[in-house]
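Customer escalation, tier 2.

The customer says the design service returned an amino acid string that "doesn't look like it belongs to this structure." They asked us to rerun it and document both sides in this ticket. The original structure tokens are below, unchanged.
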């Protein structure tokens, strides 16, 4: 298909490349403005499975509030190793 487009578009290689880019951007625009919004009601975005309940019913459990303040202040961080001195490639520190 891309070879067909490349052969059918007029102009030199840079002009054809620009035309291909413009065709691609036009296709993306049409998809995002018209196609995706029209099929969105048909997609099962509201039919999610959380906590493994399944069955297509939504969970009534409230979401967790997120990380606690003890994890944000560094109490549970993994230790971070410094730079490996053996990797200095002969350069004096």
């Amino acid at each position: 298909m891309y070879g067909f487009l490349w052969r059918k578009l007029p102009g030199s290689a840079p002009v054809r490349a620009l035309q291909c880019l413009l065709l691609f951007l036009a296709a993306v625009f049409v998809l995002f403005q018209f196609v995706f919004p029209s099929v969105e009601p048909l997609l099962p975005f509201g039919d999610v499975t959380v906590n493994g309940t399944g069955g297509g019913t939504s969970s009534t459990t409230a979401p967790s509030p997120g990380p606690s303040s003890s994890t944000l202040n560094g109490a549970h961080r993994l230790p971070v190793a410094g730079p490996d001195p053996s990797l200095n490639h002969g350069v004096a520190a």
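Tier 2 assessment: The sequence is consistent with the input. DSSP finds three helices and no strands in the chain. Residues 13-39 form the longest helix (27 residues). Sent an explanation to the customer and offered a walkthrough call.
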